[in-house]
Design brief:
The chain is mostly beta strands. The chain folds into two domains: 152 residues, Galactose-binding domain-like (Jelly Rolls, Sandwich); 312 residues, Methylamine Dehydrogenase, Chain H, CATH 2.130.10.10. The protein is built from one helix and 44 strands. Strands 1, 3, 4, 37, 40 and 43 form a six-stranded antiparallel sheet that branches. It has a five-stranded antiparallel sheet with strand order 2-35-42-38-39, with no helix packed on it. A four-stranded antiparallel sheet has the order 5-32-31-30, with no helix packed on it. The longest helix is centred in the middle third of the chain and has 8 residues.
Length: 474
Amino acid sequence: MADILFPITTAPGARPGEGAGRLINCYAEKLADGARSSHTRRRAPGLKGVAKTTHVGARGFHYYNGTLYVAQAERLIRINWSGTAYVVTDVGNLPGTGRVTFARNNKAPIADILCTTEDDTFVITSGSPPASLGDGDLPQALTVDFIDGYFVWAIRDGRVFFSGINDTTVSALDFGKAESHPGGIYRAVAFGELLYLCGPNAIEVWQNAGNATGSPFSRASVISRGIAGTFAIAGNEYGFSALIFVGDDSAVYRLDGGYQITKVSSPDLDRLISKVVDKTTLDVTVAITEGHQWATVSGPGFSWTYELGTGLWHERASYLDNHWRGVCSTQAFDKWVIGDRETDDVWFLDQDTMREGADPLVMSAISLPASNFPNRTIIPRADFDFIVGQGLVTGIEPIETDPVCLISWSDDGGQTFKQPLKRSLGRLAKHNTSVSVNRTGTAGRYPRVWRVDISDPVYASLQAGTMDAQGLSR
């Protein structure tokens, strides 16, 4: 017998045949000592519908005092919980289709909320359409944030403007400038007690110096690593604990506060990012489910999700797509809300949801290569250790009541896979269900690679596998 090893972090390699397994729409979670496997592979959290707005393309969110503001193409939407349902209200025109940033201050009794778009900065109120801030002393900004009583605007030329304390007024003299490296800045991010001025070549770290005139903040340190684009950084959302960003070197970094960054991406992900021609299309979206903190890095043809607690990665891909539909996030209604790139849907990221709306959420686990190089191996049988018997009492027949998995294998390093075989995962309480395949042929000089796919929307947990392996001479 030989173990079939499934990865705990996705590692496809630069080409099929050199990788160490993949996890797509599923992640590895360590089990307690004494469990029958060290890790299990669970389906990634699904998308549960909050509301449909009739406007497509998520641009950004802000949640305050029970109201979720949703920026979509050309519109601002308000979502509230009525006690029985989520109520959608069209607040008014919010010009543009590009991503936006929101911020609010500590003004009492009602805080000011601002939204900076590619065209202007707008004042947001629940009962009126967005209105231009209309301050001639503020140049067109890239983003807005809030720290220590100040609204903070990032200007592309490297300047950063500050408002009055808990006010929306701006003086033409109340600004500082990032000057440690040329190239200006893409974004000003407030995180903890520090302000990070993120440019294409460096990140300047500023702290509140209490200056009475000009900029109240001044430079404390410089991180010699820039960011790839304005929205290639996230984590300053309320409730999240680290900044995750794509660097100017096409690697992904983590910043837990202070001045030290840590590279967290693998060479496989670095290669994908480096091939993105327009780095402004890169984005990072964060969320939390059941104690797991997720940061998803997406480009035009990929999405990889990093778990902060374990340092492990898995891939995400929506149905009939090569990357994840989710973009933008905020904590709202005691959960995390996710936007949709292409539709008018607003979602909760939900661990107990096994779909993305009406679409299946297909989890795929591809094993490490079982190598006997250069000898051939006869494999008459393989068994897979699932938590079985998870079908529902009632539900959609048969996908919820009698769920199945598809098992296939490759003998050319993962270039191609055989026709998959369907195997039952067991109706409810059928805990003795066996998941096995027989007469699977002979592996040649390339090692055998196994693939397991599950689309049926029930609980799925893959522990490990074993196979009969009878070696042959060359």
